[in-house]
Specification:
eight-stranded mixed β-sheet, elongated
Length: about 325
């Protein structure tokens, strides 16, 4: 459910009113039933929300939403405010989902947004969902992939400051992310995906004119290793033109060096169509590519399209369709 003080419960209810979702999967909401009930009233949804338990088989009927109710929040939780209890609850919802996925009781996880400040106030000092998923699945090699109809981007670094990001980039990490991009798209039915790698500096350093040789030291060896293994990858290329070329169809996925380099182009193409996929985990996890939208929480106007797309991609990627 994510942070229940945000738009998560509302977009969940709106999304699960789509009969097409129920044709392909049995959605199970892990959260607080009272928050879903409140959201249903806000959006005017005529739906039955039924509580289920961990030890039962999750079978839903048309016109109802199943909820594994952890009952962690007060009924009058304020909308749009950073709350330690909502941050802690968001962590517990995800921890429970990971537990069920590892046990094979669910086939994929789709996350609504959480608030990082609330998560920290709740006692969980993680940068976000991705790092929680990695730790609780004992995964050391993972990456954030953003997917939209026109562009796919995978990141070498994500939730760190820019100076720290540059220091963390190294040939092994660049190679690993290229390999994850290749393997992910190959499993999805593209046997030879075309991959492009961004430079770190303007114009990808322009042969040492910009920066201090970061491309030569940190990026090129990783690209060359992937090329030697037969992966169709080019780079480092200037980021200011690379995303245009990828949208045009020259490449299937772009490897971005840091958070804003990859997130900016995806979000310009439309927040409602972007999906966040954690690559490298032993379980499938997709997510909306937007935040908790505290400014409109409780109004019923939040757009559910990103969550619906995230659900569709979770269904498509799930191993037991």
């Amino acid at each position: 459910m994510g942070d229940a003080a945000g738009v998560g419960p509302e977009i969940i209810v709106k999304s699960l009113m789509d009969a097409n979702i129920h044709e392909h999967a049995i959605p199970l909401v892990i959260g607080d039933k009272k928050m879903l009930d409140r959201a249903a009233r806000i959006v005017g949804a005529d739906v039955t929300i039924r509580n289920v338990h961990k030890n039962e088989e999750f079978l839903g009927e048309k016109g109802e939403i199943l909820c594994l109710d952890l009952d962690l929040l007060p009924e009058n939780l304020p909308f749009g405010r950073v709350s330690a209890e909502a941050g802690h609850a968001a962590f517990e919802y995800l921890r429970t989902a990971i537990e069920l996925a590892k046990e094979g009781k669910i086939n994929a996880i789709c996350t609504a947004p959480l608030n990082k400040e609330a998560l920290h106030k709740g006692g969980h000092l993680y940068p976000g969902h991705t790092e929680i998923l990695a730790e609780l699945t004992d995964t050391s090699n993972f990456s954030m992939m953003l997917s939209s109809p026109k562009l796919k981007v995978i990141h070498v670094t994500t939730h760190v400051g820019l100076i720290d990001a540059v220091s963390m980039i190294n040939p092994n990490r660049v190679y690993d992310v290229i390999r994850m991009a290749h393997d992910t798209l190959s499993r999805a039915g593209n046997p030879e995906p075309k991959i492009a790698v961004c430079g770190i500096n303007p114009h990808a350093g322009e042969n040492g004119l910009f920066g201090y040789g970061e491309e030569e030291e940190k990026v090129i060896p990783g690209v060359e290793q992937a090329q030697e293994e037969g992966i169709a990858v080019q780079g480092p290329l200037p980021a200011d033109t690379l995303f245009f070329r990828a949208v045009r169809g020259d490449f299937d996925i772009v490897v971005a060096m840091y958070h804003d380099q990859g997130h900016g182009p995806i979000k310009v193409l439309g927040l409602e169509s972007g999906v966040n996929i954690t690559v490298g985990l032993p379980i499938i996890r997709t997510s909306v590519d937007h935040g908790t939208a505290f400014d409109i929480a409780g109004t019923g106007i939040a757009d559910e399209k990103s969550l619906q797309e995230a659900l569709r991609q979770a269904i498509e990627l799930a191993p037991n369709k």
